[in-house]
Amino acid sequence: MKKINFGAGPCILPQSVFDLAAEAVFDFDHLGLSILEMSHRSQAFVDIMEEARSLVLELMDLDASTYTALFLHGGASQQFAMIPYNFLKKSAAYIDTGVWSQKAISEAEKVGRVETIASSKEDGYKSIPSNIQIEHAYDYVHLTSNNTIYGTQFDTFPSFDETPVIADMSSDIFSRLRNYAAFDLIYAGAQKNIGPAGTTLVVIKKDFLRQVNELNRFKFLDYNAHIKAESMLNTPTVFSIFVSLLNLRWIKDRGLTSIFSENQQKASLLYDTLEKTEWILPFAEPSSRSSMNVTFTIPDASHAALFDSYCKKHDLHGLKGHRFIGGYRASLYNALSLSSVKILTDLIDEVNTHV
Ligand SMILES: *Cc1c(COP(=O)(O)O)cnc(C)c1O
C-alpha cells in the first residue's frame, strides 16, 4: 500500500516520474543499457543534461542569453560556502529567517564580512521580517525564500535596488509564479520539488559572474569552471539529474500557473481547517505562512496520540515536525494532490468529533 507522503524532503514526486524512472533503470530508451550504467559523456546523457538545463530556464521564464543553469553536487549546503567563496569581497548582507539562513551566514563569515540586516529570531522564526532595508552597498544580499523547518515563506520579495540578490529556494522553487528575473543567483537542493536527492540546481545571471573573485583557488568551487564545462566538470549525478528532468517535464505539462493555483487551494484548505480546530495551534504567523510546509502543534498529549493513531490508520506519512521545533509539519509539495490534503483535513475533522 503506497502511503501518502507529507515528508519535508526527500519528498513525494509524481507517480508517473517514479514509473518512468523505474523503467529507465532497467532499459534506458530501448538502448539496452540501464541509466545507471550509462556514460555521462554519452550523447543520450548529454541530451538529458542540455534539456534539463534549458527547461529550468524556460520554466523560470529566463533567457539563456542572460542566465545559465547548472546541476552541481553538494546540496544547498555546499552553496552556503560556494556563494561567499565566489562573490564575497567586502561585505555581504544576509536575512536571517531560521536554521538554513543561519547555516549560510556561518559559512559566509568564514570568508568575509557579513551583516545580518534583518532577522525574525526574536519571535522564534514564526514570521518573515518586514520593512527590510538596504542601507549601503554590499557584494550581495542573501535570503531564504521558504523556511522549510518553521513553515514561513516570503510572499513577495523586498526590493534591494542595485544590490545583487541571491536566494536559497530549496523548498519552494517551481511551486508558484515568481519573478525569477529579480535574482542574480538562485539555488535549490533537488530533493524538494525538483527531483531526488543528489543534485543541486544553481541558476546564475551571467552579468553577476563578472563579480567572481579572481583569487579562487579551488576549481571545483568556481562557478565559471562549472559553466565552462557545461555542468560536467566531473561525473555529474546522472540518475538524479535524469529523474529531475522527468519531473521538470511533468511541471511543464501541468503548467506553473495551474500548479500554483492548486498549491494555493491545498494550503488554504489545510490552514482553514487548522484555524477552526481548537486543539491545534498553527505555528507560523498568518501573514508569513508557507504554502509548502504547514507547521502546527497539538499541545494536549491525548489529542496528539489520537491524531497520530488516525494518521497511522490512514497511511499518512512524514507529518512529524523538524527536530528543532517539534510538533507537526505537513509538506504540500507539487506532487501531493489536493485530494491527499483532503484526506488529512477530513481526518482532523474526524478526530475532532472524538475529542
Ligand atoms: C533542505 C534545505 C536545505 C539543505 O539542503 P541540502 O541539499 O541537504 O544541503 C537548505 N535550505 C533549505 C531552505 C532547505 O529546505
Task: Describe what this molecule looks like in 3D.
With 355 residues, the protein is an alpha/beta fold. The chain folds into 2 domains: 240 residues, Type I PLP-dependent aspartate aminotransferase-like (Major domain) (Aspartate Aminotransferase, domain 2), CATH 3.40.640.10; 97 residues, Aspartate Aminotransferase, domain 1 (Alpha-Beta Complex). It has 9 helices and 14 strands. A 7-stranded mixed beta sheet has the order 2-10-9-8-5-3-4, sandwiched between helices. Strands 11-12-14 form a 3-stranded antiparallel beta sheet, covered by helices on one side. Strand 3, helix 4 and strand 4 form a beta-alpha-beta unit. Helix 1 packs antiparallel against helix 6. It is globular and about 65 Å long. The model has no long low-confidence stretch (mean pLDDT 97). Bound molecules: pyridoxal-5'-phosphate (PLP).
